[in-house]
Every structure is written in structure tokens, then in C-alpha cells.
């Protein structure tokens, strides 16, 4: 039997904490109209309605001007390639990837409902930035989808929003706040997020060291850099490299011989006239250093060229200026007596009679002699016919009959060349036009193809003048063969080229039965064929246009409902018609006197 205990049976103050089960006292057990005093801390969630209790942190954040949002797992580092849909003024707005694949941001693969701060969309797409959650992760066959979170999808919820990032290679432990002021509408206003904290995220990069809270420049052991009064500057030796107000420079006189590599100073590196005597070291200019033909008179100092400086056989005749070698320039005993009488000096008809003798003319004594006065003279009868060969000039001759004196040479007079002759460089030749006449091995001849229309008089080419089979296609001008030029019966099958007879070349009614060989006129040779067209009357139409021009209007036959109609000059009823090539584009037109009834079948046979 159960025992019932009423409130009157419980002694006051006997229900103590140790007697209560966990969660035994809930809101339904409390008198919510009463006032309670709590001595310890009371925890409450972030308020979402006007009557909710709030936390100290929430109030502090409001005082600081920030509206904190639940943390995001990651934040973007670059613009997402995705299509934005603004939902209902931002509520339910989505970013859908433009390609398939699972979403991964800042080195973190995401899961459904992970929160993401999107902050890097392009300048033109900044209204897409904001706080999203993953609603579709994405896969090989599906794109990922992000949807704005319900705590950041309106203007009121986003103003002064702040959020911490938990993970990521670049953004872990960083805090971001919306710095855009005056946001008026989601999906229209730019949403620009800026980092305001980065607890634990600062590390030393290249050249930077971090010790505790101190960041410093990390110098190498031999850095060519130094600190001067707390400022970093380039360290220089002062002798080859110097500093001034313009920056680092090569010191004056800083480049010495030791600094220049062997053979480094080429011709291109030397300014014109830059090298003076004082700049050249003793014995520095060797043969290998001198470009061919570059030692000119102006470059050589007076008395600079001594015997020791000149290589054997270096000074040839071409290298010596006129009148340059004076007595003072020749060393004593430099020119031996024997050198004055060597074979080259004695050439040209000179001789000497023993060492130390004077030079004499070496005369042959048959044509040239030394006379009694010691003079050179031509001997009597010394000039023979052989000696005169080629030696008598034109001015020594009495010329006439087409010969002339041309500067002492015998020449053909210019008046010798009359009409049809040309004198060019003492060569006399026939003056030909080259087009109609030319010179062959046998003399003058008519040039191939030289006889053209202009050379022929009208009616000059008669039958007697034409060799059989010589009137070829190449010899006839276009349109040259007219009726008057052809003998009756002259144009046979053998004389006509294939496809030569076209419509434009045939006179009307010229092709008679006698002129056409049996079996020659095939359908392909005729410019028309037998045709039939069908029409249906509508009770009002009297004119019916054919598809082509009729080749013979008398050949047109018209049938209505299987009965042949009567052709008339002026048809008066539905059983009479006329025909003419008067349709659009000159096609054949059949005209009835009265419109055939609706549904009447009309057949037209014609050549076209």
C-alpha cells in the first residue's frame, strides 16, 4: 500500500539540497511570479529576444561597439568561384560553386553546418561577403553550396559584427570585424571585413626574427648591412664603395687595376680619346693589343718610334708617308753600298761597270745608242716595221670615206649609220623593233607571233594565204569568225570543238533538220524539257503561273478535271484559256476567262 505525504506533513526547512535529485527542480516547479535572490553565478545563453536575460560579455561587447557572432571554423583567403543568389533580401542567400567538388578552404576540408567567413570576393562582388554555413559539401558530381547563417542575414544582425576564426593555415586564431559603415541592404551594399586581432598568428618570415613579443631584423653573419643609431643601412668599406645623400655609389678612385679582370677593357668600353700617354703603363701596348691599321700619324708621339719598337719587315712602302724618310731618320750605315746596286735598282736598262762605278744606260746599239755627245739617241734605221706595229695613231693618217679620228684611234664615222642601222660602241647593227622582226642565225626574220592584227590589212588573209589546218583556236581572235567569213558548208563536225556551239552563237531558226546529225540532240543538249504542273482552283483565281518560261507557247496544253480546255485569244469562260510568258520573272502564265471552281484540278503540259 502506497503512503501519501502531503505538504502539511513535511516539516519546514527539512527539504535540503542533498535530498533533491538532479534536475528535479525545473521551471514547472517554480513560482515564476515570485522574486528570487541568487548568491552564486547564474549562466544564461546569448539573448535573442527582448525579455531574455543577458551575459556580462554580451553587454561588454555592446559597450565596445562589437556584436559578436559564433566563431567560424575557417575564413576565405581568395575569392570563391561561385554564383550568388540573394534569397529574400539576404535571408537564405547562397553561394553555389561553378564546378563540382568538395569544399576546402585555407587548407581545411569542411563538413555540413561548418561556419565560414567569406571575405575575399572581388571588388565588384563585395556584397557577397559575409558569414555562411556549409549546406552542401560538394562531391565529384555535385557543387558545394554555402548559405548565409540566420545570425548574419539581415542589416541589423550584421552591423558591427565580429567573429573569431578557429582553423586554417593563414587565418587560424584571427579576429575579423565588418568595417563597412552605412550598410543599407544585403546583396547590394559592399560588406568589407577587416582583421583586428591575430592572437598567436604572428611568426617571423624571411629576414625577421621573433623573440617573445619582440620582432627584429635577422642579419646574416656577413650581411653587408649594419645598424646605425637604430636605423638599418648598407655597410661599405669606404675605399671602393661609399655612401652619400644620393645613396650607395662607387667611391672616387675606387676602381683600381686589381679590380679589373684581365682583357675586360674592350674597344667598346673605351671612350674616344680617353686613353692618354699618362694612362698607359710602360710596355703595356703590345702588338696583340693594337687593332689592324689603327696606329695613325696623329696617335704617334714625335720620336716615339725607335728601332727597338719596330718589328723586322714591319714598315713597308705603303706605311711610309711621302717625304717622311729624311736623312735624319736613317741610322748611320743603315743603307749599305751593295743595297744601292741590287737587281731591283739595276732593272730598267741600267748597268754599272764594277763596284763603285757610275750607273750607265744599257743601250742595245741596234735601235738605241749613246752618241758622241753622251746622249741617248735613236740610231739611223733603228725603227723597223715591227716596231711600228700598233704604234701609228689615227691623227697621223689622212681619213675619209666613213672613217674618223676618235682621240687618236681609228673609228667608224657616226654618219655611216643611216635609217635602219645603229652604231653602238663602234658596232654597226640593223635597228629592229624585236616584236615583228628579229635576227636569227640565217639573218633577218619575222619574229614568232610577230604578225598581229595591226600588221594585216583588211581582207588580206584569203583562202590561198592559209595553209591547210593552220586556222587554230589560238590564231583566231574572239568573235573573229562571222557568217560572212565562212564558206557555205565549211563548218563540219570535225571543225567544231566540243561544246563550241552555245546558244549565243546560233542565229534564230538556224538549226534545221538537215544541219543536225541523226541521234545528236539528246535531252542534255536541249535548253528545255517537257514539264507538267498541277494547280487547284479556289473559285476566285483566274491566273496560274508556271515554274518556268514556256519554250513554245503553242505547245502548252491545259486540262481541267481531266478535260482538255480550249485555247483562245480572249477567253470568256472557265473552259477557255490564254497563255503568255507574262508571269513574275517572265515565267509562263495560264489565264482562264472565268475562275475555275474551288477544288477543280488543273494540269498544264508545256516545254520549259
Give a description of the structure.
The protein has 608 residues and is mostly beta strands. Among the domains are: 67-198, no CATH class; 207-251, no CATH class; 394-430, no CATH class; 444-520, no CATH class; 528-607, no CATH class. It has four helices and 36 strands. The chain has helices spanning 56-64, 155-158, 343-346, 385-388; strands at residues 67-68, 74-75, 82-85, 94-97, 104-105, 108-109, 115-118, 130-136, 145-148, 161-164, 174-178, 193-198, 208-211, 214-217, 225-228, 231-234, 241-244, 247-250, 350-352, 359-361, 368-370, 376-378, 403-406, 409-412, 421-424, 427-430, 437-440, 443-446, 530-536, 543-545, 557-560, 563-564, 566-567, 576-580, 589-592, 601-607. The strands form 13 sheets. Strands 2-7-8-9-4-3 form a six-stranded mixed sheet, with no helix packed on it. Strands 1-10-11-12 form a four-stranded mixed sheet. It has a four-stranded antiparallel sheet with strand order 29-36-31-32, with no helix packed on it. It starts with 55 loop residues before the first helix and ends with a strand. The mean pLDDT is 77.
Low-confidence stretches: none
Largest sheet: 6 strands, mixed
Which strand order does the major sheet show? 2-7-8-9-4-3
Total number of helical segments?
4
Strand content: 15-25%
List how many beta strands DSSP finds. 36
Q: How confident overall, as mean pLDDT?
A: 77
Spatial separation of the terminal alpha carbons: 123 Å
Described by the principal axes of the CA atoms, the overall outline is flat
Would you tell me the structural class of the helices and strands? mainly beta
- What is the radius of gyration? 62 Å
Helix content: under 10%
Amino acid at each position: 500500500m502506497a503512503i501519501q505525504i502531503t505538504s502539511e506533513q513535511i516539516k519546514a526547512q527539512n527539504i535540503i539540497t542533498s535530498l533533491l535529485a538532479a534536475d528535479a527542480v525545473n521551471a514547472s516547479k517554480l513560482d515564476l511570479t515570485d522574486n528570487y535572490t541568487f548568491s552564486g553565478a547564474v549562466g544564461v545563453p546569448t539573448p535573442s529576444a527582448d525579455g531574455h536575460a543577458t551575459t556580462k560579455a554580451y553587454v561588454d561587447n555592446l559597450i565596445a561597439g562589437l556584436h559578436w557572432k559564433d566563431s567560424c571554423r575557417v575564413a576565405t583567403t581568395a575569392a570563391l568561384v561561385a554564383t550568388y543568389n540573394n534569397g529574400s533580401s539576404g535571408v537564405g542567400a547562397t553561394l553555389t560553386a561553378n564546378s563540382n567538388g568538395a569544399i576546402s578552404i585555407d587548407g581545411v576540408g569542411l563538413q555540413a553546418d561548418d561556419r565560414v567567413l567569406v571575405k575575399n570576393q572581388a571588388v565588384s562582388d563585395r556584397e557577397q561577403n559575409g558569414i555562411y554555413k556549409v549546406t552542401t559539401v560538394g562531391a565529384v558530381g555535385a557543387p558545394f553550396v554555402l548559405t548565409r547563417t540566420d545570425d548574419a542575414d539581415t542589416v541589423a544582425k550584421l552591423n558591427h559584427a565580429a567573429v573569431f576564426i578557429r582553423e586554417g593555415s593563414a587565418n587560424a586564431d584571427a579576429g575579423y570585424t565588418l568595417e563597412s559603415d552605412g550598410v543599407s541592404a544585403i546583396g547590394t551594399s559592399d560588406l568589407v571585413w577587416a582583421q583586428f586581432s591575430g592572437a598567436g598568428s604572428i611568426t617571423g618570415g624571411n629576414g625577421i626574427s621573433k623573440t617573445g613579443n619582440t620582432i627584429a631584423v635577422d642579419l646574416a653573419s656577413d650581411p653587408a648591412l649594419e645598424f646605425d643609431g637604430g636605423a638599418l643601412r648598407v655597410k661599405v668599406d669606404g675605399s671602393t664603395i661609399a655612401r652619400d645623400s644620393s645613396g650607395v655609389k662607387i667611391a672616387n678612385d675606387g676602381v683600381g687595376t686589381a679590380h679589373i679582370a684581365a682583357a675586360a677593357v674592350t674597344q667598346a668600353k673605351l671612350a674616344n680619346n680617353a686613353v692618354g700617354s699618362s694612362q698607359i703603363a710602360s710596355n703595356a701596348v703590345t702588338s696583340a693589343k693594337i687593332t689592324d691599321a689603327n696606329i695613325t700619324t696623329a696617335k704617334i708621339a714625335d720620336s716615339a718610334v725607335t728601332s727597338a719598337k719596330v718589328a723586322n719587315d714591319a714598315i713597308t712602302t705603303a706605311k711610309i708617308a711621302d717625304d717622311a724618310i729624311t736623312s735624319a731618320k736613317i741610322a748611320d750605315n743603315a743603307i749599305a753600298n751593295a743595297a744601292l746596286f741590287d737587281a731591283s735598282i739595276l732593272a730598267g736598262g741600267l748597268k754599272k761597270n764594277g763596284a763603285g762605278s757610275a750607273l750607265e744606260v744599257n743601250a742595245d746599239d741596234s735601235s738605241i745608242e749613246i752618241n758622241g755627245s753622251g746622249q741617248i739617241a735613236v740610231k739611223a734605221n733603228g725603227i723597223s716595221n715591227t716596231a711600228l706595229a700598233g704604234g701609228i695613231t689615227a691623227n697621223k693618217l689622212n681619213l675619209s670615206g666613213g672613217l674618223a679620228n676618235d682621240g687618236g684611234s681609228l673609228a667608224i664615222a657616226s654618219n655611216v649609220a643611216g635609217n635602219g642601222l645603229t652604231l653602238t660602241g663602234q658596232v654597226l647593227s640593223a635597228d629592229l623593233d624585236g616584236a615583228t622582226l628579229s635576227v636569227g642565225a640565217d639573218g633577218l626574220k619575222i619574229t614568232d607571233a610577230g604578225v598581229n592584227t595591226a600588221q594585216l590589212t583588211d581582207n588580206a588573209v584569203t583562202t590561198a594565204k592559209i595553209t591547210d589546218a593552220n586556222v587554230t583556236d589560238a590564231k583566231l581572235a574572239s568573235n573573229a569568225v562571222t557568217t560572212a567569213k565562212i564558206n557555205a558548208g565549211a563548218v563540219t563536225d570535225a571543225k567544231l570543238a566540243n561544246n563550241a556551239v552555245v546558244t549565243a552563237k546560233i542565229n534564230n531558226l538556224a538549226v534545221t533538220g538537215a544541219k543536225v546529225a541523226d541521234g545528236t540532240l539528246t535531252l542534255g543538249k536541249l535548253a528545255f524539257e517537257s514539264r507538267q504542273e498541277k494547280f487547284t482552283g479556289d473559285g476566285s483565281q483566274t491566273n496560274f503561273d508556271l515554274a518556268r518560261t514556256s519554250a513554245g507557247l503553242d505547245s502548252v496544253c491545259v486540262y481541267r478535271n481531266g478535260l482538255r480546255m480550249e485555247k483562245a485569244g480572249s477567253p470568256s469562260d472557265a473552259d477557255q484559256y490564254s497563255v503568255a510568258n507574262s508571269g513574275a520573272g517572265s515565267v509562263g502564265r495560264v489565264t482562264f476567262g472565268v475562275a475555275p471552281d474551288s477544288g477543280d484540278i488543273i494540269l498544264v503540259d508545256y516545254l520549259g
